[in-house]
Design brief:
Shape of chain C: globular
CATH topology of the largest domain in chain A: Immunoglobulin-like
Number of helices of chain A: 2
Oligomer: heterotrimer
Shape of chain A: elongated
Distance between the termini of chain C: 40 Å
Strand content of chain A: 25-35%
Chains: A alpha+beta (152), B alpha+beta (322), C mainly alpha (449)
Distance between the termini of chain A: 10 Å
CATH superfamily of the largest domain in chain A: Cupredoxins -  blue copper proteins
Number of strands of chain C: 3
Structural class of chain A: alpha+beta
CATH class of the largest domain in chain A: Mainly Beta
Number of strands of chain A: 9
Number of domains of chain A: 2
CATH architecture of the largest domain in chain A: Sandwich
Order of helices and strands of chain A: HEEEEEEEEEH
Radius of gyration of chain A: 22 Å
Structural class of chain C: mainly alpha
Largest sheet of chain A: 5 strands, mixed
Largest sheet of chain C: 3 strands, antiparallel
Helix content of chain A: 10-25%
Strand order of the largest sheet of chain A: 3-9-8-5-6
């Protein structure tokens, strides 16, 4: 009986912690929205820089330069894209609103590994990985609770 | 056993249907685009009839390419990997046309060319005139540095009023630096300041072209030239370094003159380089190509008039037009 | 024993006992398999527009790793078209036993082959060429042809489905992960089997051919040994075969402690990590190296791949297991190798979660290519269903990340749970193995998110 109770308490505690990890919002940044200009070079099969960063409210201009064959850049979550041929850079501007991690993908078939030509746009402080790791940690802690005692 | 027979028939039928493409092949043969290193266009010689619609099915086997035909007003189309683009061409005049890739697809992009031989009754035309640089006996491979260069950027808008006769023939045959030097000796003009004389040169140069022509020249320059020559003509385009490296690599293996090896393009931001070149010389370079320097031959793709517009645009790297 | 037999459902039992439903699915898959080879050989060399690549590496792979393996275990093996030709060669029959006659040399598989080291080797061999296989239709076609030819060849020489059991690189990991599935084929009453005179399930009879996997169902304790071909269901004279729903990962309660399976687990774990870095990472040079088979950078990549899978991950795990032994309250005398192989069972749910999370990243982003290749499977300009021109649009969003995190957390949970149970049994403290699993999970999260 005592053991059961202890288990119940631990389960509740872990569930509350998991809910907290998922739901507690990231601390808001006091930064004022700014305009950002980034030059991104695309070549088989990478973007340089591979990770772009901005804060919610920022106006981001990406100027895409293709270095070998024609490439495109598609910003997941925002649905904006541009396509550039070598020697003919193309720029586009969008306002980032939602925070989170968004994939950048090449949008023109640029060779065998084109579907795997990826970059990242992180908007705001990136808590996704920390939250995910914390959840995995809680999951591991929960494991003993799910094992029936064979001698009990 | 009846069930077994049915099962066997099902398997044979399904396997047979799935194998049909092995023997059928596509309905119409495809024109394949590949990187020049991988073979370029396949096939690279096509045959058509003048006045007859000529259907082509284009596909790319690797990256995005484009399809355009020189000396025609056929709108270029994109040729995307793994998909088929249908075009129907009609050639009014028989002759040999060059088709080419219109999307920069690497250092050897410009090698992606093929020809369409259009058969038909040849109308009696006069044999083509030799190009101007040949008529003028200009050695377009010789160095042509400007003896004098302006201290400030010449500007056509500030040119002094001076009645100077200036024909197209003069324009074509003379470099801006030569014209400036001539002006320095001419009675009515030698009293002007250097800057005024340079502004006059700029005005005469501008008089040989038009805003619309410059727009076309710039469009062609951006499309075809900027990848090596640089957006502003500085010789620092995307592929400039690779060209120089390819040249060095080739020279290690081959014997040849260094002037004619693959090399980085000239720096037209340097007045001494650009202002020493006459329009006919630049025109000739484009028309004929660099004969080994890596400069493609544009004569097969662009008309004389188009190339003259590009020439006029090049001078805007040094001379302000109004 | 918290098991429910699905065969209590009369129509399901009838559908499974009848050979036609299974044969029909298998025959259709065979047509797809042949067409994937044909498309790979004569279709466009552009992978994303070739049926061979998209059908195999997007459609089949997604269904296999996200649904079929986690839910049914070896359900794919049940309908896999690859053994069809070899089976026919042996039995001269597509349906049923054909009087029990067998052709071919019918040799017993040498002991050397009666393990999954060959499957490990076959998988490792495919894995180091994976970038080319995954993107080049010709290479995919070649890989499929090699598998088909090897399966037929082995059927001609050895008895039963020897290719499936000991060589097939796919069958190896399906078997490993089938231990997680909540489905199992077992016997209802082992005593009835002991007294059964015919052992028709193993030897074959008029009603059905003998187990192609060489398994005697009464001895079945773990899913990897059963290919779910369902033939014993048809041949058993005592109606003693059951198809149970069971708790997840039930096979891992009493792990096999086999070193070949342990290394299968490390290979799969390492491959998922390396692929996540190669295919989903931002490193262009790494992608080019993985693709350029035969070059020096590729040799470096292949060497690194094998080192990570066969030395680094097992090495760290060895340390964790030694630590677990030291920390355990009671220390039964077991061989170190045995401890190591037994503890590796925790990596089975972990690896499956890694693969599911990795697959979620690229399957949905590239899923819209399915529309293109269904209408124009060869890139020849066909438009069968009017979708050849569909514009690429990734089905990917924040929900994918949420699902990936959930799946990876579930994997870590499963690993820790197996470590708890198996640890209690084998005298190993669960903490080091749980910590190892958590650490790798965080690395995987870092690569995927």
């Amino acid at each position: 009986m005592n053991l059961r109770r202890k288990k119940l308490w631990m389960t509740v505690t872990l569930a509350v912690l998991a809910a907290a990890v998922i739901l507690i919002p990231a601390p808001a940044l006091a930064a004022n929205p700014i305009e950002r200009f980034v030059m991104v070079e695309a070549s088989q099969y990478a973007f340089t820089p591979a990770t772009l960063h901005a804060n919610p409210g920022d106006t981001v201009t990406i100027e895409l330069h293709s270095a070998d064959v024609a490439h495109g850049i598609y910003v997941e979550g925002y649905g904006v894209s541009a396509e550039a041929q070598p020697g003919q850079p193309v720029a586009f501007t969008f306002v980032v609103t939602e925070s989170g991690v968004f994939r950048l993908r090449c949008s023109i078939t640029c060779g065998a590994l084109h579907p795997f030509m990826l970059g990242r746009l992180t908007v705001g402080p990136n808590w996704t990985l920390a939250r995910a790791a914390a959840l995995a940690g809680l999951a591991v802690l929960a494991a003993p609770l799910a094992v029936r005692r064979e001698t009990a | 056993m009846k069930q077994e027979t049915l099962a066997r028939l099902v398997v044979l039928a399904l396997a047979g249907v799935a194998s049909i493409p092995l023997i059928s092949g596509p309905h119409t043969p495809l024109l394949h685009a590949r990187l020049a290193e991988e073979g370029g266009w396949t096939p690279d010689v096509l045959h058509a009839e003048a006045g007859e619609p000529f259907a082509l099915r284009l596909t790319s086997d690797d990256v995005l390419h484009g399809f355009g035909v020189g000396h025609t007003d056929i709108e270029p189309v994109l040729v995307a990997p793994g998909t088929v683009t249908d075009v129907t061409l009609t050639f009014d005049q028989p002759g040999t046309y060059t088709y080419y890739c219109t999307v920069w697809c690497g250092l050897n992009h410009w090698r992606m060319r093929g020809i369409i031989v259009v058969e038909g009754e040849t109308p009696s035309t006069a044999p083509p005139e030799p190009p101007l640089y040949v008529q003028l006996a200009i050695d377009i491979d010789a160095p042509h540095p400007a003896d004098v260069t302006p201290a400030v950027r010449p500007d056509a808008a500030n040119a002094p009023d001076a009645a100077v006769e200036f024909s197209f023939e003069q324009y074509a045959a003379t470099s801006p630096a030569q014209l400036f030097a001539e002006f320095s000796r001419q009675p009515g003009l030698k009293d002007l300041t250097d800057a005024q004389r340079w502004n006059l040169v700029a005005a005469l140069w501008a008089g040989q072209t038009s805003p619309a022509a410059l727009v076309e020249g710039e469009a062609i320059f951006r499309q075809e030239c900027a990848a090596c020559h640089g957006q502003l003509g500085g010789g620092d385009g995307l592929y400039a370094e690779a060209l120089a490296e390819a040249g060095e690599a080739a020279m290690d293996e081959l014997a040849g003159t260094h002037d004619m090896m693959i090399q980085a393009p000239p720096d037209w931001q340097d007045p001494a380089v650009l202002l020493g070149a006459s329009p006919a010389l630049l025109h000739g370079k484009m028309l004929r190509g660099g004969m080994g320097t890596g400069m493609p031959m544009w004569g097969a793709l662009y008309t004389d008039a188009q190339l003259w517009n590009v020439v006029a645009y090049l001078y805007t790297f040094q001379l302000n037009s109004p | 024993m918290n098991r429910v037999s699905l065969l209590q459902i009369p129509w399901l039992k009838a559908a499974l006992k009848n050979r036609w439903p299974q044969f029909t699915i298998s025959a259709l898959l065979m047509a797809g398999f042949v067409f994937a080879i044909v498309a790979g050989l004569v279709g466009t060399p552009v992978g994303s527009r070739n049926f061979g690549i998209i059908a195999v590496w997007i459609a089949w792979w997604a269904i296999l790793i996200l649904a079929v393996v986690p839910v049914t275990g070896r359900g794919w093996c049940s309908v896999c078209p690859i053994p069809m030709a070899g089976d026919f060669l042996q039995r001269r029959s597509l349906l049923g036993p054909n009087g029990g006659r067998t052709r071919g040399l019918n040799l017993r598989l040498p002991k050397l082959f009666r393990n999954i080291w060959w499957q490990n080797a076959a998988f490792a061999l495919m894995a180091i060429f994976s970038a080319a296989i995954l993107t080049n239709p010709r290479v995919t076609a070649l890989a499929l042809i090699i598998m088909l030819v090897a399966a037929i060849g082995m059927s001609a020489v050895f008895e039963r489905r020897s290719f499936c059991k000991s060589v097939c690189p796919v069958g190896g990991f399906i078997g490993l992960y089938s231990q997680v599935a909540p489905l199992e084929l077992r016997v209802a009453d082992a005593a009835a089997c002991a007294s059964c005179a015919s052992k028709a399930c193993y030897n074959g009879s008029e009603a059905g051919y003998g187990c192609p996997w060489g398994t005697f169902p009464a001895g079945l304790t773990r899913n990897p040994a059963c290919g779910l071909c369902l033939e014993c269901l048809r041949s058993c004279p005592n109606d003693n075969i059951v198809l149970n729903l069971r708790p997840f990962a039930a096979d891992l309660e009493k792990p096999a402690a086999r070193l070949d399976e342990a290394f299968k687990a490390f290979l799969m774990l390492g491959a998922a990590l390396v692929y996540a870095a190669v295919f989903l990472g931002p490193w262009g040079n790494l992608k080019v190296a993985a693709l350029a088979a035969g070059t020096w950078p590729w040799l470096g990549y292949a060497a690194a791949f094998l080192l990570i899978c066969l030395a680094l991950l097992p090495g760290l795990f060895w340390v964790a297991v030694r630590l677990a032994k030291r920390m355990a309250p009671a220390k039964p005398h077991t061989a170190r190798r045995h401890d190591f192989a037994q503890a590796a069972a925790a990596l089975v749910p972990l690896g499956l979660a890694f693969w599911a999370a990795f697959s979620l990243s690229f399957v949905f982003a590239n899923g819209s290519y399915l529309l293109n290749v269904l209408s124009d499977p060869l890139g020849w300009g066909w438009d069968l269903f009017g979708t050849a021109g569909a514009v690429w649009s990734p089905l990917y969003g924040s929900w994918t990340v949420a699902v990936q995190v959930g799946v990876l957390a579930l994997g870590a949970f499963g690993a820790a749970r197996v470590a708890q149970r198996a640890g209690a049994r084998g005298g190993l403290h669960p903490l080091p193995v749980s910590g190892y699993s958590l650490a790798l999970t965080v690395v995987m999260m870092g690569l995927l998110l």
